[in-house]
Prior knowledge:
The complex is a heterodimer of chains A (426) and B (208).
Chain A: H1 2-56, H2 58-61, H3 72-75, E1 83-97, E2 112-125, E3 130-139, E4 143-154, E5 159-167, H4 190-194, E6 200-209, E7 213-221, E8 248-256, E9 262-271, E10 278-279, E11 282-283, E12 288-299, E13 302-313, H5 316-323, E14 332-344, E15 355-371, E16 382-393, E17 398-409, E18 417-425
Antiparallel strand pairs in A: 1-2, 1-18, 2-3, 3-4, 4-5, 5-6, 6-7, 7-8, 8-9, 9-12, 10-11, 12-13, 13-14, 14-15, 15-16, 16-17, 17-18
Chain B: H1 2-20, H2 30-38, E1 42-49, H3 52-62, E2 72-80, E3 83-94, E4 99-106, E5 112-120, H4 130-133, H5 158-178, H6 182-185, H7 188-193, H8 195-200, E6 202-207
Antiparallel strand pairs in B: 1-2, 1-6, 2-3, 3-4, 4-5
Helix pairs in contact in B: 3-5
Amino acid sequence: MMRLVLSCRVTIALTALLISLAPVHELHAQDADSVRLAELERRIEAVTRELERMQLGRDVVEADSSIQGLGPAASKVYRVNQGVSLGGYGEFLYENFAANREDGSGSGARNQADALRVVLYVGYKFNDRLLFNSEIEIEHAKESFLEFAYLDYRLTDQVGIRGGLLLAPLGLVNELHEPPIFLGTERPLTENRIIPTTWRENGIGLFGSGDAFSWRLYVMNSFNGTKFTAGGLRGGRQKGAKALAEDMGVAARFDYTGTPGLILGVSGYTGETAQGQELANQPVGGRVSIWDVHLDYKKRGWDVRGVVAGAQVSDVTAMNSLIGLEGASGIGSNMLGWYLQAGYDLLRTSASTHQLIPYLRFEKVNTQRGVAAGFSASPANDLTVTSIGAAWRPVTQVIAKLGYQIHSTAANTGVNQLNASLGWLF
Amino acid sequence: MALLTGKRVLSAAVMTIAFASPISAQSLTQDEALTLAFQDAQLERRTAFLDDEQVARASTLAGPDVEVESTVVSYYVATRGGEPVGVAYFDVHRVRTLPQVVMLVVGTDNRVGRVETVSFREPPEYRAPDGWLEQFHGRELDGELSLKGAIANITGATLTSGAVTRATRRVLALHAVIDPFGAEVHDAEAHDADAHDADAGDLTANRR
């Protein structure tokens, strides 16, 4: 009986003990879960921060501390990722010429398919202030050129200094000549004969931009005027290759860019071009001055652009004598060209990324609008070209164009042509 | 002597400009960008973990030419006096060869409040000007948010134009799926309708 009572007491005591201990055990278990949960959250936070740091880059996420005794902002340059930047563009062109000129005589022109250009951009960013950029081009599948190669040093956010082989900052096409950017299977003649795209020379200058404008001011080696022709200034480009630098030129540009989609600007160039040549022991100047007013508007499916460009050449008689040009073959003392072009994306309202843009361009160019006394102007250099066609962009960087050009000259020597081209940039 | 002094002043000015002037616009830090957008607001970092269905929905909302692949999205909710004022997302994408980081701020009306270039490593002439970025302000995720719609291209910087436009569509699509303001600014009915999306939201949230 005593044993039974004792056993009952032990059982009751053990039960009481278990009952009293149970909540404590549960409490401890809950505490442990909380600790584990907090640790798990801490680890997830650490992982997501590390992921963010890897995605955005160390210079973005962790740049707010100092390095080498400099303040945090000054230290940024040490964290900026350096790197090579590659890009490129290219175009193929097929030209089918009419059998007859506009006066009915045989044109003699033969159809042509050309791997017009394939270009590689290579740049290297040393830090936030200093970078190198270049364009290396193979034209017609066999001719290689350096189209530009320069070093930029940014003095401030708004102003930088640039030196090397520079693109003359005139017109719309010379600096921005990737085929998907412009409509038309070929570049406008105004920006071929008067602004001789792609026009690049060695030089140095300043560039800058603000909220609503951009500008450039370069000093460059000038043209070699002894290579000018009655057809324009194109032959005078020295392209940076052991360029004669007896005469230097100044090129400048100012654009209003305050309205998205709109570029409205002016540009100009002046420089003597005889490059030290003399005539009868007398120095020849041969100053060329080029100006242009340009507009480019791209928005809501519209692609509209226009350029007016003119050039004046001084000492033309002496320059013609230096080159040996006579009669109607002399260099024009006054040149004028302009074009107006418009296109509209018919697929603008579709959900597709494709664009289909019929376009029309009307252009007039005369490279002998004025000639020196004793010389005559060839009516064949007074051209009117009407281009009608369509461009298809499956994505914004790739374009296929089909266009028909109606050429007319004051001498009735124009030869119409049907063109097809493929272009890309990346 | 006066000429010499003038030269010294000029060279000192050039040296000052060249070596002391900040070039802050070239790259912001994340903190600088957030301060620019929200000044003194309280910021909370959150991370959304999306499942495949949510990623697919964001991809559909973003459009056919916009990649949406990430299942882990960190974002920053700004509040003043306990009321949300906006949320910032950081989107990193390739422009030509090198990446660009942009910060997109979405307001409580689910429209773009601000787009800021945080880091741009391509040549600066391809960088989107601030004036161009302002086109995105007030935009919502619709057909007009496109280079074929209300957004004008940057002539000469086509790749940047496309990259920023796609980033904006991607962020607004993710924002719609994550719905970070769901519990804070939506009325109960709207919140119920979006409950599934809101559930996707936050596993982690930390005050900065």
